[in-house]
Amino acid sequence: MAMRTAVIPAAGLGTRFLPATKSVPKELLPIFDTPAIQLVIDEAIGAGIEHVIVVSNRTKPAIEAYLTPSSDVVDRVRRSGRTDLADRLARIGADVQVSVVYQDVPRGLGHAVGCARQAVGDKSFAVLLPDELMGDESLLKALSKVHDLTGNSAIGLKRVAKDQVSEYGCVGIKSEPDRNGVVEVTSVVEKPRPANAPSDLVIIGRYVFGPHVFDDIDSLQPAENGEIQLTDALLMAAQSGSLSGIVSDIERHDTGSPRGWLEAVIELTLQRPDAGPSLEKWLRSRFG
After folding, report:
1. How far is the C-alpha of 201 from the C-alpha of 147, rounded, in Å?
2. Which pLDDT belongs to residue 243?
3. How far apart are CA 54 and CA 137, in angstroms?
4. CB contact set of 5 (below 8 Å; sequence gap of 6+)
5. What is the residue-wise DSSP string for 147-160?
6. What pLDDT, on a 0 to 100 scale, did the predictor assign at position 88?
7. Cα–Cα distance for residue pair 275/174, rounded to 1 Å
8. Of 131, 124, 121, 71, which Cα lies nearest the Cα of 99?
9. 72 phi and psi angles, rounded to 5 deg
10. Which of 157, 254, 265, 273 is most exposed, with minimal Cβ within 10 Å?
């Protein structure tokens, strides 16, 4: 069955961005003039998603307010000359259904995905982490295709320097990637020490699952920190021979820290024809 549902876990409280996140969810911090979560929704729509499920927290009402269709806002944005952004906003609630569910207790990414079970139903679905902005929807489309062909869960992977693997979930693989970058994943380790890492391949924030993953999540025991880890569900899939990965060099920006967010703002703004040239001119005048 073609994947038409996506889950965006957005219940985190953004403590690294305090005091800004005291009132503004980090998912709504702008990348120039567009909230990060809008860019992730745009990616999902580009991959054929028709139903977006956002897992939020009741202490972040601004998330639900942003996702509530508003013709007045769309009209004001359009009158300001930002017609492309207005068109993208108008798709929420029209071309794509958006639902909000809640994770009110911070119990980890696996638990957050599990909170979407009823909204997802018995369909295959994608998970898109909103802290990671991709250059386009090509990886998500490729993961969906692998899932359709094999029935396996499918995850995005990238190669990193060995001293960086401790920042990610790291995987072991059966053999080198095929010509499409597809690998069979045999093990998953959460943030290993470089000396213990099974490879230099780490998980990036795009996944495609069948509905059976919810049973796997429900069966998990909490980690030492009390959280339900999504990597533990991935390990179960790897051990049963049903986890595929795609090694990708897609453009990717990690906005999970203030420094990463700032770099994403600068790099993505430089790519915009309406703002990039003037920003580049200012940067050159400021820094030479």
Report:
1. 20
2. 96
3. 18
4. 49, 50, 51, 52, 53, 120, 123, 124, 125, 126
5. HHHH--EEEEEEE-
6. 85
7. 45
8. 121
9. -65, -45
10. 273
Q: What amino acid occupies position 164?
A: Q
Grouping H, G, I as helix, E, B as strand and the rest as coil, residue 278 is helix
Cα dihedral 165→239→231→242 (10° resolution) = 100
Measured CA to CA, the distance from residue 7 to residue 206 in angstroms comes to 10
Helix (H) / strand (E) element for 9: namely strand 5-9
Asked whether the whole model's pTM tops 0.90, one would answer: yes
Cβ-proximal residues to 20 (8 Å cutoff; 6+ apart), any chain: 14, 26, 29
| pLDDT value of residue 89 | 87
Please give the Cα distance from 52 to 84 (Å, whole number): 20
Dist CA 99 CA 53 (whole Å): 5
149 vs 155: CA distance, rounded Å: 14
212 CB-contact burial (10 Å; exposed 0-12 / middle 13-18 / buried 19+):
middle
Partners of 254 in beta bridges: 132
Secondary structure class of 192 (helix, strand, coil)? coil
Q: How many helices (H) and strands (E) would you count in the chain?
A: 11, 13
